[in-house]
Amino acid sequence: MGKSFVGKPKPLGADHKVVVVLDHGPRFGIGASEKLPIHVKELAGNKQKFVATIEKSVWSLAVECALEMHRIVSDVFPNNNKLMRFVLSDCVGRFLTSDTSDVMKQWGDSLISRNELHESIKSAGKPLTSEDSSILNGVRMAVDALSQKTNAYRKAIDTAQKMGNRPGQGKRPRVPIPMRGGNLEANKQKRDQFLQTFIPNRGAIVLMTSLKSEEELKSLEADIVEIVKGRNLIVKNLGDDNFSPIEDLRCYIINVYSGNLANPLQNKSMQSADDTELVKIQLLSTVDTGEAIQMVVHAVTLDLYNLVSTTITGIPMKVCT
């Protein structure tokens, strides 16, 4: 790991946020087909002597790649203003954070630190063996999080209201001014809905799990669409200014399969999972080796953050503006 990345000259919007969901159930608790060789230095000379191999779990590989994804984002965007949250999914879904306060359940203004992420993963322990574990528990938490308004999103809405422009798009129709004597709260909601048509609430989910068949994939895709639509209905009925319906969700399913078995699923490009194009899903299958999973995670990160990669070492990472 440690590949260098630089940015394309395409800015990320105020609606940009990502949730990484890691399967913490029994399918990630098994040993991976990749073995780690252990060598020790001989007393005489500089030769290395092979002594043993260590079996790594699929969970260990997934954690390493999640940390690598975090490293890329924190290095390429040194001001740490790109919002990314991590969720574990087993019998329940839970955010990876060392702080359990209500404040940490909301989007902040900065990326979680590497130390905090590392410590929260360590405290979670090994994957559960319970068959009641489900990746959908993490998906629900991720969707709930994406429906929350971030501070950056609020500022963009506020700026659009004051300037009368859609960011980067020039003039747009004037926001209707509430008439005197009208219902101010109702007018405020109409104004916010009007503005949000120009700054839609978008987001992305990176889902690392293990699927055994095409039927499981289709069921997961249908469940994701149902969860998003259900959450949107709740948000609309709530009328809470802290939330906004999700209008565009991209979901990257990273399917990890055993190298001792045939690949059960072929890759699928990003495509709509329903007739409304609300949810778009891409499937990326990879064998359970660190290098293979890392390559897939790199590809997803490039797409998420509009990056290009370079294998030249010594070049500082930067973002083009």
Automatic annotation (TrEMBL):
Keyword Cell cycle: yes
Alphabetized UniProt keyword annotations: Cell cycle, Cell division, Cytoplasm, Mitosis, Nucleus
GO cellular-component term (any): integrator complex
Compartmental location: Cytoplasm, Perinuclear region; Nucleus
Family listed: Belongs to the Integrator subunit 13 family.
Name by which UniProt lists this protein: Protein asunder
Subunit structure: Belongs to the multiprotein complex Integrator, at least composed of IntS1, IntS2, IntS3, IntS4, omd/IntS5, IntS6, defl/IntS7, IntS8, IntS9, IntS10, IntS11, IntS12, asun/IntS13, IntS14 and IntS15. The core complex associates with protein phosphatase 2A subunits mts/PP2A and Pp2A-29B, to form the Integrator-PP2A (INTAC) complex.
UniProt cross-references to Pfam families, sorted A to Z: Mat89Bb
Residue ranges, annotated region (Disordered): 162-181
